[in-house]
Specification:
With about 350 residues, the chain is of the alpha/beta class. The chain is about 50% helix and about 15% strand. It contains 15 helices and 11 strands.
């Protein structure tokens, strides 16, 4: 008597308000195509929200769910027990906090069930205390604020990270890569290749591939010396290097560096360095509750007053105004969704 195919995994996608559709859809569609290629339902999934009500994505598309957190807590001990829970979130995840959700995620993990996240969901896992001492990935835009808020988590700008029973990915199409990794563990490379053909994906990316475009493509700069100097700057934002130190590292004179930056970047190296530090500061202001003085220190400014002066010169508003305007935008967005 031949054995009937059995379900390999049951997944629960927990939707946080304003979750990002792309990583969520990429993950679900990858599982759907796997089932189609196999000819049977190897992967089941259901959608969950805190209260069991539909959840609106950041694209304004409302998604109906199958269960609430209360339902899923009951499922932990029954036939509907999942193999994995994935938190799906997106913009403004820093504003989200739910103690009941945190307790459920901890209980889920403690019962030996894999827990993970898509896009910015690592923030929710960290709030639940599940990422202390764990490797994790989060979208590059949220990485500065996350690393400041959760210093005990080992966060990387990777596509995805798997650390024991914790799965995190940076969002976008990286959720596709993480799901393909999971399917590959279950069924091997042949099925993964067939899924890639269906998705018009030419390869499965390495988990440690970079999230952002290489500097050469991102900045449109070809000069290797300039690119190496910019990379050095980006790796030293909290304690900025002097131009002398940069020149020594690049094996160039200060005059040569000044000339190269004027030609390639249209500004002095000092000005460019200042702009990328202020860009990081802006991310911290809108993504964290860090006091302005701490943001200033984290971005290499000697005082809050100097930081505010530089910030206003570049963005035409103070750091305090930036944060206040962001809060107003979030409040207005939530009011319009509720209406």
């Amino acid at each position: 008597m031949s054995r009937q195919p059995t379900v390999k995994r049951t997944l629960v996608f927990f939707l946080v308000p304003d979750f990002t559709m792309l990583p969520f859809a990429a993950a679900v569609e990858t599982l759907r195509i796997a089932n189609r290629m196999l000819g049977y339902t190897a992967y089941n999934w259901r959608l969950c929200s805190a209260d069991g009500e539909r959840v609106c994505s950041s694209a304004g598309i409302a998604v109906e769910v199958n269960s609430s957190v209360a339902d899923e807590r009951k499922n932990l001990g029954g036939e509907s027990r999942p193999n994995m829970v994935l938190v799906c979130s997106g913009i403004d995840v820093e504003q989200y906090g739910n103690k009941t959700v945190n307790a459920w995620l901890r209980e889920t993990y403690n019962r030996g069930i894999a827990v993970g996240s898509l896009c910015t969901g690592a923030h929710v896992l960290a709030q639940a205390g599940l990422l202390n001492g764990k490797r994790c990935a989060i979208h590059w835009e949220n990485l500065p604020g996350f690393s400041e808020a959760f210093p005990q988590a080992e966060v990387y700008a990777d596509l995805y990270e798997v650390d024991g029973n914790i799965y995190t990915c940076a969002g976008g199409t990286a959720s596709l890569d993480m799901m393909l990794n999971l399917i590959g563990q279950d069924f091997g490379e042949n099925l993964v290749n067939r899924i890639c053909e269906q998705q018009l994906t030419d390869r499965v990316r390495n988990p440690h591939d970079r999230q952002r475009l290489p500097l050469r493509a991102r900045l449109g700069v070809q000069n290797t010396k300039v690119l190496s100097i910019i990379e050095l700057m980006e790796n030293n934002l909290s304690e900025p290097l002097s131009l002398v130190e940069i020149a020594d590292d690049a094996d160039l004179s200060r005059r040569q560096i000044e000339r190269l930056f004027r030609q390639e970047m249209g500004r002095s190296p000092a000005r460019y360095y200042l702009e990328i530090r202020l860009d990081r500061a802006r991310h911290l202001l809108v993504q964290s509750s860090m006091p302005v003085v701490e943001v200033a220190v984290a971005c290499g400014f000697v005082s809050a007053s100097h930081f505010s002066k530089c910030y206003r010169e570049v963005y035409n508003r103070s750091p305090q105004q930036e944060r206040a305007e962001r809060k107003l935008t979030i409040a207005s967005s939530r009011t319009s969704v509720a209406a």
